[in-house]
Each structure stands twice: as structure tokens, then as C-alpha cells.
Amino acid sequence: MADITRRLGWRHLRSAPTAHIRHHKRGRLVHDGRGLSFWYRSLSAALSEVPVDDRELAMAFHARTADFQDVTVQATVTYRISDPAQAAERLDFSVDPDTGSWRGAPLEQIATLLTETAQQHTLDVLARIPLADALVDGVASVRQRAADGLAAEPRLPATGIEVVAVRVVAIRPEAEVERALRTPAREQIQQEADRATYERRAVAVERERAIAENELASQIELARREEQLVNQRGINTRREAEEQAAADSVRTEAEAARKVRLARAEAEAARETGAARADAQAAWLRVHGETHPDTLHALAATRLAENLPRIESVTLSPDVLTSLLTRLGRPDGGAGA
């Protein structure tokens, strides 16, 4: 929309480079072009503003396929006004000289024209194909048919409108039909997911079996080695016992031999000692046999005196002394008393 300012009964218009301004004064075209800026009086001016930039028109409408299924078509048409003078003559692009706003709704008229034209050709295409084909190849077919139909529409160039591009965003069936159509694919995807799950579980079971077999093999190998260890320990223990028994036998034999030798030595010593004692006893007896009895009595008394307790003094009566001396063979009691 153009910018309009007021100054002392005059109006000043300044337009954008994408807007084509037509200024008529008293039925005569005074200004005509883009991005104009000029002064005018509102009572004598007739202004038109035609946008010449590219415009996007989004549209959505319903159609029916060959198998009587309702679908929604979403499309976008890009257009521009290539002949502003012709568009201003066919449509009402006049603006208020005081505010600069359109008096009518020219863009809505263009949108209605483009939408109805595109819808007419889209309905013609979709009515000839079933729903499945419309969902698979319908986008390209509808886009091509709508573009060709808009290019061949005589009202558009007569109004100064040029279609730049046609895009079909989507063709969608009703929600229930769409869910029904998605079901086989979902089931197939679910089957693939289940198959992948089963395969993964099978692989997991196989791996667990392999792990279990490895563990069992490890346990068997460990048991075998333990058996070997037990056998080796038994062999070592038996060998150690045999060695110990042999050592004990050798030690016992040595001890027995030592004891035999010792006993023999002790017996020999005892025998020699006994012989010596016998010889000494015989000699002692022989000496005693050759000795006078009184001498033996004296020796016996001496030995007896050696074994008696110590006596400090002894008092003998004359009778006892005489009797003793008599027994010692000294009746006179002489010397040696």
C-alpha cells in the first residue's frame, strides 16, 4: 500500500518499487509506472495501485477419485501481474486518495479465479484414476494438468495475470481411509520388526548356547585338570610315603644295627667287666681265705666303724675291754691299744 501524506489540501503519494501506480486526473492519465512519487489533489485524482511482485496463493479443495473416495488436494500457485494496465482495466485496483487503501478486493478475485481454474482441472484428473493411483502418482499428474490448464486459460492473459509455478503439496484421503491404507504397510513393518526381533532373539539364544557350551567345556576341562591334579597329588603322596617308608626302614635298620652293636658292645663290656669283677672277687676271696680270721674280724670292724656315725668318745669297762682284746688275739692288752 502506498504512503500518502497531507499538506495544506494537497496529498503526496509515495509507492514501493513493486507497485504499479496509475494516476488519472479528469479522465486523463497523468502518472503511470512503478515506484512513483508525486503530489495531487484528492478531489480530482483517480488512483490505482497494482502489485507486480510474485504472489503465493495456497489452496485446498476436495475431489473424488474413480472409486468414489474423497481426497483433499493441497497446492500452491505462484503468479504475478505482468500487464498492470490491463489488470487495472479488468479488475478494481482503485485506492482511496486519502488513505491509500483499496476500495475493493482485487486480489481475492484473482485468488478465486486461479483456485477455481486449478480445481476444475484437478477434479478432471482425479475423477479418472482410483485412489491408490492418485496417492502414488496423483501429485505429478495433478501438478502437470493444473499447470497446463492455467497456462491455457484465456481469462488469465486477458486480465494481465501470468502463472509462474504450480506446486501440489499433498493429496490425502479421509482419515479413516488413510488409516485403513496404512494398515497393510504397518502390518508388514510390524512383521518385519517381529522377524527382526525373532532373529535377534534367535541370535541371542545361539550366543547364549555358545556361551553355555564354552562354560561347560571350561568346567569339563577344569574338572579334568582337577582330576589330573588329584591323581598327581596321590602319586606324589604315595611316592612321598614310599620314600618316607624307605627312609624310615633305612633309619630303623640303622637304629637296629646301632642298638645291636651297642648291645653287643655293652654285653662285651659287661662280660669283660664281670670277668674282671669275678677275677677281682676271686682274688679278694683268695686273699681273705689266706688271711687269719682275726685279721678279717679287724677289717670287718674297721669297715663297720667307717660306716657308723661319728663318735666323739667311748667309755669301755675293763671287762669289755678285756673281752675285746681277747677276741683280737691280744690278751695282754699290749701295744697298739
From TrEMBL:
Keywords: Plasmid
Protein name per the record: SPFH domain-containing protein
Pfam families according to UniProt: Band_7
Highest rank taxon of the organism: Bacteria
Location of the Band domain: 34-197
